[in-house]
Amino acid sequence: MTNQIALITGASRGLGRNMALHLTKRGVHIIGTYRSGAAEAEALKQEIEAQGGKATMLALDVTNTKSFQAFASAVTDTLKAGFGRERFDFLVNNAGNGIAANFVDATEDQFDSLVTTHLRGPIFLTQKLLPLIEDGGRILNVSSGFVRFTLPGYSIYAAMKAAVEVLTRFMAVEFGPRKIRVNAIAPGAIATDFGGGAVRDNGDVNAYVAQGIALGRVGLPDDIGGAVAAILSDDMGWANGTTFDISGGQLL
After folding, report:
1. CA–CA separation, 180 vs 96, rounded Å?
2. β-pairing verdict for 55-59 and 88-93
């Protein structure tokens, strides 16, 4: 992968940041988005450039669908001015939020936040960006291991991610004439700041989760970033319409 461009939503922190760095190692340039972490986004940009890559960071709130047309225009301008291109190669719908609430306690506001962030946003953002994706490009959606296994408190979140997996298959079929491959990843427990960072920062939680993983440890951001770079590579060019479980064998 050389001189290709990936657009990653939520790239300023967490898994999105790690994805960007792994793609940079493979020669892929980055257009990343951030919601409020402008300083974190700038730090990532500098780190990518220090490694010889190109990067531009753009502000985007994936819950504000009315801003998507203006964002697509900003991407068009960025492609021309920063990369000498009219289109980009890879779209990674990564931006998300985590809200834990038992089913009986879940509120409509929590539901609205999750459905807007994880479903409505990616659907209509992808719609707006499709004309800017190269024929033969790739789209990667982010699901969750919670679609396969359960944990009290994540029913609504998991339902959104299940919808993402179904959506991925339909997108793969509909975008097939343009040879755009669409897949998803379903990470297991990863040591990040997701959900308040309990898996990363609480030793007891970390150990409890690890005992349910076949490989005996929780995942690290590099486990996901490396997998994403591999899935987007030509080596995985025949994978289409599927969800990759990247959990180390969690709760098998």
Report:
1. 23
2. unpaired
Kindly state the tokens that stand for 63: 């819950």
Tens of pLDDT, residue by residue over 77-113, are 999 999 999 999 999 999 999 999 999 999 999 999 9
pLDDT in tens, 43-69: 999 999 999 999 999 999 999 999 999
Taking the C-alpha atoms of residue 193 and residue 118, their distance in angstroms, rounded to an integer, is 18
Domains of the chain: 5-246 (3.40.50.720)
In the sheet that 181-187 helps form, which strands lie side by side, from edge to edge? 55-59, 29-34, 5-8, 88-93, 133-142, 181-187, 243-246
Which residues sit opposite 244 in a β-bridge?
185
CA 249 to chain centre: 20
Catalytic residues: 157, 161
The token duo for 183 is 């897949």
Give the count of alpha carbons within 13 A of 5, CB side only: 22
CA 139 to each of CA 29, 163, 213: distance values in angstroms, whole numbers, following the listed order: 16, 16, 28
**Does the model's pTM come out above 0.85?**
yes
In the chain the first and final C-alpha atoms are separated, in Å, by: 34
SS3 185: strand
Q: What are 63-81's pLDDT values in tens digits? A: 999 999 999 999 999 999 9
**DSSP per residue over 77-91, as a string?**
HHIIIIIS-S-EEEE
Phi, psi (degrees; rounded to nearest 5) at 33: -115, 155
User: Using CA atoms, how far apart are residues 33 and 247, in angstroms rounded to an integer?
Assistant: 25
